[in-house]
Amino acid sequence: MLKLIILGPPGAGKGTQAIKLAKTYRIPHISTGDILRDNINRGTNLGEQASGFIKRGELVPDNLITKIILEKLDGEECNLGYILDGFPRTIWQAKKLDDYFRRIKQNSAFVINIKVDDNILVDRITGRRTCQKCGATYHIINLPPKFENKCNICRGNLVQRPDDKINVIVNRLEVFKLQIKKLEEFYSISPNYQIFDGSEEPNNLTKKIAKYLCCSE
Ligand code: AP5
After folding, report:
1. Domains delineated in the chain
2. What's the pTM?
3. Which residue puts its alpha carbon closest to atom 20 of ligand 1?
4. Catalytic-residue membership of 129
5. How many CB atoms within 10 Å of residue 126?
């Protein structure tokens, strides 16, 4: 059973790597951002509660997101493992996840921390376009779609995430920096913790992460 947590700032490539690794290992990719955005689009109670926080680039309340994730991990689809993208994001969430592993008598997860310089992150996020229909992501310069503003996979319209605008990004990066130190302290004592350079070309990075997971399992 492979349980993997991906840490990293907005735009580090957590989602990009999680999608590739989930395919390789045939385990679910659990993205808290995708779950929240889906709930916002469907107008659910959770979506209504989360929407304001996301628009401002703040974190949604710990207990709200933690309850959803822990319930998901209990589901049958997670029996063979999973990749957590965007969770935990605070020390409170990390401790709750650890308590959960202890309660169900499971080992802790692998934790990878993808690091990238701020100036690269801002370019990546402001240039990102996301398919409204299937959620696939592109970059206007580094990974343009074949047809302007149309998804290669489903031909859905490509849009900029409202929280990918520059004024919100600045806040998201600040919020990230406030939390990451404590998370690094918490996880870095584990033998299953590894830092990766997120400025590498995506496929090379996936290979390096896969090699690390394969050698450490
Ligand atoms: P979320 O959706 O998780 O956003 P994020 O963490 O800010 O991460 P991003 O999706 O922006 O970036 P990513 O690292 O996945 O990068 P990607 O692969 O897309 O969360 C959104 C909001 O939800 C939060 O702000 C918060 O409000 C709320 N939330 C979520 N989880 C929460 C939690 N646990 N607790 C509380 N609140 C929570 O790549 C970015 C771009 O770069 C793409 O264009 C891609 O093509 C490109 N790219 C990727 N890798 C590379 C590479 N190696 N080289 C060149 N380009 C690359």
Report:
1. 2-116+167-216 (3.40.50.300)
2. 0.96
3. 33
4. no
5. 15
